[in-house]
Design a protein that fits this description.
By secondary structure, the protein is of the alpha+beta class. The protein contains three helices and five strands.
Length: 118
């Protein structure tokens, strides 16, 4: 079963960014934001095959080593705490757990400060 990661309903327990906020991005669906205001699921650069999850570098490396058919990084993401996740993952439950872990990490960060108006 393929993971339909583009739908914000995929993780109703963590919620999706409201449409008026996500609308600032190219693809209004598929963005997840933690209670701290940190984004942890986003469109990424390989939109035809994958989405990106912001998560710590140790987890990125572990995921790439243990399930390279799902988790990978393009040159753009190397050294950055984010991993690309293929939409057609053979293990959608693991993907959900990774996203939940990313949400927990993002929620633990300091809240995002509002941008100053120009």
């Amino acid at each position: 079963m393929a993971l339909e990661a583009r739908s914000p309903e995929i993780l109703p327990s963590v919620g999706a960014v409201p449409a008026h906020v996500a609308g600032r991005f190219r693809n209004a669906i598929g963005y997840q934001q933690s209670s701290s205001g940190q984004f942890f699921v986003f469109e990424g650069r390989e939109t035809d095959t994958s989405f990106a999850v912001k998560i710590d570098l140790d987890t990125v490396e572990m995921l790439k080593e243990t399930e390279p058919e799902t988790y990978w990084q393009s040159k753009h993401y190397q050294g950055y705490p984010a991993v690309l996740v293929r939409y057609d993952s053979p293990d959608p439950e693991r993907v959900r757990r990774v996203i939940e872990q990313a949400r927990e990490q993002a929620a633990a960060k300091k809240p995002v400060r509002p941008r100053k108006k120009k």
